[in-house]
Design brief:
- The longest helix has 21 residues.
- The chain has about 230 residues and is an alpha/beta fold.
- It has a single domain, classed as 3-Layer(aba) Sandwich (Rossmann fold).
- The strands form two sheets. It has a seven-stranded mixed beta sheet.
- The protein is built from seven helices and nine strands.
């Protein structure tokens, strides 16, 4: 595909995200996605973060399979989760569920210091190659059990969980810095809700349910024999 066509597809993706936000305004309590988030997403070649045979569909507003029963989230959900995090330049962000690296790249485009954990070694290796090829060499990636977070680098100003957990993972809550934010899908598979967790300066946290979603379950290391 030509660069002009890809650029047009990115513009259409952003317009679709805006339209989706407006349609969901009653649920979201907002009718737009921030310009910062959309600008960051406009700079990322999403087609480089999906299997090559799906590149033509990379900018459509739908999740796409990336192998190992995992998907890259639809652009609107990526935009919404990013917007809810309210990432500021210099924020230390922990991402759970790297996939092929797209959301990590969006966070890096917002000038965050990104630490990302992927439990599936093959996906982590592919993500590392894709991110380095696009000069996102400062993103720190490891293979591990995301449920445990990354305590060596805690606390984190922001935590993004790209897989669903029945409850808010306790280890991640502990690794969230005071005044920090975490976005995580929670609930049983048929009743998941995108959840915003905010931690006050005194360490207490508040929880706000945003909207129904559907994510793959947060895997544990035991399930993969590691």
């Amino acid at each position: 595909m030509s660069e002009n066509l890809l650029a047009t597809m990115r513009v259409q993706m952003l317009a679709t995200i805006d339209a989706h936000a407006a349609l969901a305004s009653d649920v979201l309590g907002r009718d737009t996605i921030s310009t910062r988030t959309l600008t960051a997403m406009a700079t990322i070649p999403r087609h480089d973060f999906v299997p090559v045979e799906l590149a033509a569909y990379a900018y459509s507003d739908q999740p796409l399979p990336i192998g190992y029963d995992k998907t890259i989230s639809q652009p609107f959900i990526v935009a919404l989760m990013t917007d809810l995090l309210d990432v500021q330049p210099g924020c230390k962000v922990l991402e759970i569920g790297t996939g092929l690296g797209y959301h990590a790249a969006v966070l890096a485009a917002l000038e965050a210091r990104v630490y990302t954990v992927e439990i599936i070694e093959e996906l982590a290796a592919q993500a590392s190659r894709r991110l380095k090829a696009l000069s996102y060499a400062d993103i720190v990636l490891k293979v591990g059990n995301g449920e445990h977070g990354w305590p060596e680098h805690a606390p984190f100003d922001r935590i993004l969980v790209c897989a669903a957990s029945d409850l808010i993972p306790h280890a991640l809550l502990k690794q969230l810095a005071p005044l920090g934010r975490m976005v995580v899908p929670t609930g049983m598979p048929d009743s998941q809700v995108l959840t915003l967790v905010e931690k006050a300066g005194n360490g207490r946290h508040s929880v706000k349910e945003i909207m129904p979603v559907r994510f793959a379950a947060l895997e544990t290391a035991t399930e993969f024999g590691t």
